């Protein structure tokens, strides 16, 4: 199973208004393990970058003057993501920008979804944590993924998203026993399973007074929840 974690930085928020990609970063996973393969480009957007965007990623127009345009990196980019599962946080945003760049190259280039399967971790997070903040920073804090950055960057955010995605979906891999007792690796979220251990621990049953005290404490907790 080959997966690619992808992120972009852009000149603004709306590709329909002519905003362009200025950085693209991809990190490869195989069988839910990070490989050494990455794809990273800074891209000359051939247009101005909005000040609000610069405040987020810190990339200025002057820094991109000597960088390739998207047409120059389109082939290696498509080769990198082809036939993989591409994982993005808020996938419609990044996919819309990539589709806009491909459309500028001609109809024969198609859309991102023509080359890969797309997974949106923001949609996954909203299902797992309804009503909570599910930004990449919020998920990093929730899953205790260390973030060391002052500004956003496509490759850096892709690397952070990789760790968040693995944490959200059950870690790198779990060694489980199949029905025949053979050991094999399964990826993805796993249901907790009871583990039977042989021990000589003494089981101590609570007294009636302890049970009554426990019930009183539960009642107090319920009262506090209703008040709040």
Key terms:
228 residues, alpha/beta, five-stranded mixed beta sheet, two-stranded antiparallel sheet, disordered C terminus
Q: How is the secondary structure organized here?
A:
Blueprint: E1 2-10, E2 21-30, E3 33-42, H1 51-57, H2 70-81, E4 85-88, H3 91-105, E5 117-120, H4 121-128, H5 136-142, H6 154-168, E6 174-177, E7 183-186, H7 208-227
Parallel strand pairs: 1-4, 4-5
Antiparallel strand pairs: 1-2, 2-3, 6-7
Detailed description of the structure:
The chain is of the alpha/beta class. The chain is 37% helix and 20% strand. The protein contains seven helices and seven strands. The strands form two sheets. The chain has a five-stranded mixed β-sheet, sandwiched between helices. Strands 6-7 form a two-stranded antiparallel sheet. A hairpin with a 5-residue loop joins strand 6 (174-177) and strand 7 (183-186). The longest helix is centred in the C-terminal third of the chain and has 20 residues, at 208-227. The two termini are 47 Å apart. Residues 173-204 and 224-228 have low confidence and may be disordered.
What would you say about this model in short?
With about 230 residues, this protein is α/β, with parallel strands linked by helices. About 35% of the residues lie in helices and about 20% in strands.
User: H/E element string?
Assistant: EEEHHEHEHHHEEH
The count of strands amounts to 7
Sheet of most strands:
5 strands, mixed
Rg on CA atoms, Å? 24 Å
Anisotropy-based shape: globular
| Tally of contiguous helical segments | 7
Stretches where pLDDT is under 50 for at least 5 consecutive residues are: 173-204, 224-228
Distance between the termini: 47 Å
What level of helicity do the residues show? 25-40%
